[in-house]
Please model this.
Amino acid sequence: MRTSSPEPEGSDHQSTLNEFFPRHTTPPQSLRASISPPPSRARKTIRQSTSYSAGQNSRSAHQSGDATPSLAAVEAGEAQIRNHLEYFSSHISSSAKSSAPLSTRAFEDLYKRNQHRHGRHYVIHQHDHPVAGVHYDLRLQINESSSISWAIMYGLPGNSNSRRLNRNATETRVHNVWNHLIETASASTGSLLVWDTGEYEMLPCRENIEQVTDDELSGDSDGDSSPSSDLSDSEKLHAAFRNRKIRIRLHGARLPPGYTISIRLLTSENRHNQPAKPSRKRRRKVSTGSPLAQETPPTSDVDNDEEVPDSHPNSMDVNASALEREIAEQEDEEVRLTNTYPGATNSIGSIHQRRWYLSMDRYASGFCPLRVENRIRGGRRMWTRRREGERLLGFEPFFVMGRELERSVVTGRTADEVMTDEGVQGFVGRKGWRPVTE
Model:
């Protein structure tokens, strides 16, 4: 993530980031490939750390020389361990750089304090998949053992005045919470690193909170007040998910203080049943010469004259449907019917491959629109950091720059360094990913 100059408020958090991030049972076949998006057909790739090819016995290929199972075997569910936290934190500790923003001890404590049914842990994984390419998986804990997940093609938006503030967020499988601890790589699934992790806070969802008038700009409230409630944040998440409107603040090691997002599901996307098993029949290729027309999502900060959903023809949801057809014969039926990996519980009613829209909630994140007289004549609506008394809210813009520049918050490694540490050779990633910087 690239950041601008340190903020006047919260300077300790920002200076740390500026220093670290430079500017500029046989398990189902689906688990032996990737976490999300849907896995691809097995390829004949060889890992440097073993002499097994992808076509050989997968359990043997994933086992290291001693009795300790490999990360890939544990991730795929091919090896069972009793203490996931101890296993993964030991691996992370041995790989962590001293300059990483989040220490291994803090990483462990964060996970431990959310090991209960009202836990509110979250993680954002950067996943460089060989077929789907680079994307970012947002996972939110929904109960003691499980988390709901979305795949976001370009990562989270960080510029309040971006012309592409919205992101497609494709609903994927319900994962085990211990998946939040994973940082690994393989030739068949690519690299997976912890881009950010922390705890979430649910905010009340209101329509068009950011459509404020000039007379309201002097107010001190950010609109987050709500009647007192005994519900936990995870219970509020369940309720908001059922209403298809989620407004959530992420308190992480990397994201700036107050960072808030809105996640919405259009009525047209609101399926109540898991998708049918894909047909084996291959479809004709559809020309991608022109972008696909999509409906503008009703996010809490939409300005109808300036924001459209991320409708790049190579977006995740387009690729995912093709991958679903490729693995039709191998997909485990129970996983498909429940949208849940073994060990997890779909208590929230998640439906596979529904397309949500994610956007920064600018007002709740500390921004306000410029007064009319301060805007360029005929120009688009602009947003600036908001003041509450002596406090300057909001943050300087940040941009998610992709696998070459982004680093893990717990180990300080790039995707290539994770690949090297895991002994991966011959990985060929998908080309063409570009960061959103406008």
Summary: The CA atoms of residues 44 and 54 lie 5 Å apart. DSSP finds nine helices and 16 strands in the chain. The first helix runs from residue 11 to 20.
